[in-house]
Design brief:
Bound molecules: alpha-D-galactopyranose
Number of helices: 11
Strand order of the largest sheet: 5-4-6-3-1-13
Number of strands: 13
Helix content: 40-55%
């Protein structure tokens, strides 16, 4: 569904149900050019907001409870603001409830409200539909109840919702990119202090293309938290706050105190961090060949050292290596499924047929292909 159709759909569903005009919010998903699993290591990332997202309609209610409706799922949840708890296997509910609870934990007062939301980000694709949902809810509530929260306050609320109510100890990249994204630019974000430098995305004859494996392996959440704790363990052996502050030489000096597996994981983080800086330089210098090579290197590390890839992602990346029109590719996001990000020559859609067909015959799954536009972050939608 196009954004304009989605906005009309969400707004009219709200108005039909509640007979009043809502505050409307759009919050985008994100891509990440490079810098995977570096954010919770206080490192660098290079994400951008995209033109797919979540649209949320929200308004105060006189009722003694609040109501949220997820249009895509055709599900509604009624709850009391006095007692917010995470729901076992609650799916989308926990993202919203988590945001509400974290707003309350910050000492802000909410009265009852109704929310209707819908989205056009494919689920499980690693495009951060969850961060988009969290951001849209906190942004809408901030506007509706004049909570006085800054955008930075809001992204930390979204992140805490995910830690404490969903159980994923995510970094700040997704929430940041979704909130602060800007058209045609990527965000070089230093996750240690949230310093930002904006990188104009002009890839000349090339463009970014996503290919969705259309798989999401279930172990992804526990594996994510496990990777984070490995990194924290190695950082504490090194006597530093986060791997961001380690060099390869530092890591080598504790090699005999950790397993080979943990060594490789920490080494990946240190090397990926360097690749983020190299990539942003390559983009600034229009060195598209180098950009492509760095994407492949990142995937190698994610596959063999950090071990968060899967057969489907590896296959898609491998297939691109024989195609001269594609200069680089890698898995994107947390891993274990979702999309690959590819650097492909403009107007060469035809070369994709081969990848799509061979993927389909190997896995018996039809992959999806998306060309995304780099777009603005979370905003209130004005309408008459
Ligand atoms: C998920 C998390 C992010 C980040 C990526 C991996 O998207 O939400 O914080 O860690 O995985 O780079």
């Amino acid at each position: 569904m196009k954004n304009t159709e989605l906005i009309t759909y969400v707004k009219s569903s709200f108005e039909t149900n509640y007979k009043t005009k809502p505050v409307m919010v759009f919050s985008p998903g994100r891509i990440n050019i490079i810098g995977e699993h570096t954010d919770y290591n206080d490192g660098f990332v290079l994400p951008a907001a995209i033109d797919m997202g979540i649209v949320t309609a929200i308004q105060k209610s006189n009722s003694s409870f609040s109501v949220i409706t997820a249009l895509n799922k055709n599900e509604t949840h009624h709850f009391s603001l006095d007692k917010i708890e995470s729901i076992p296997n609650g799916g989308w509910r926990n993202y919203v409830l988590g945001v509400i609870a974290e707003i309350q934990n910050k000492g802000r007062k909410l009265d009852n409200f109704n929310i209707v939301f819908g989205g056009n980000i494919p689920g499980g694709a690693g495009l951060s539909s969850s961060a988009a949902l969290e951001n849209s809810v906190v942004f809408g509530l901030n506007e509706l109840f004049n909570l006085g929260l800054s955008k930075k306050d809001m992204i930390f609320i979204s992140q805490k919702a995910e830690h404490n109510y969903v159980g994923v100890k995510c970094g700040i990249m997704d929430q940041y990119a979704s909130m602060f994204g800007q058209k045609n630019t990527a965000i070089l974000l230093d996750c240690q202090n949230l310093n930002v430098s904006i990188v104009d995305i002009d890839l000349g004859d090339y463009e970014i293309l996503l290919i969705n494996t259309n798989v999401k392996h279930i172990l992804s959440e526990s594996a994510y938290n496990n990777r984070r704790s490995v990194c924290e363990k190695v950082a504490s052996i090194l006597g530093i706050n986060a791997l961001r502050d380690a060099t390869e030489k530092d890591l080598f000096s504790v090699k005999d105190q950790i397993s080979e597996d943990d060594y490789q994981k920490a080494l990946y983080v240190i090397q990926e961090n360097k690749r983020v800086i190299q990539t942003s330089e390559a983009i600034k210098n229009n060195d598209i060949q180098l950009l492509g090579r760095l994407l492949y290197e990142s995937h190698e590390g994610l596959q063999h050292q950090y071990k968060v890839s899967c057969d489907e992602l590896d296959f898609l990346v491998e297939q691109t290596k024989d195609i001269p029109e594609i200069l680089g590719a890698r898995m994107m996001g947390g891993g274990f499924g979702g999309c690959t990000i590819n650097l492909i020559k403009k107007d060469s859609k035809k070369v994709l047929d081969k990848i799509i067909n061979s993927y389909q015959s190997k896995f018996n799954i039809q992959p999806s292909v998306y060309y995304v536009k780099i777009s603005d972050g979370t905003k209130i939608l004005d309408y008459e």
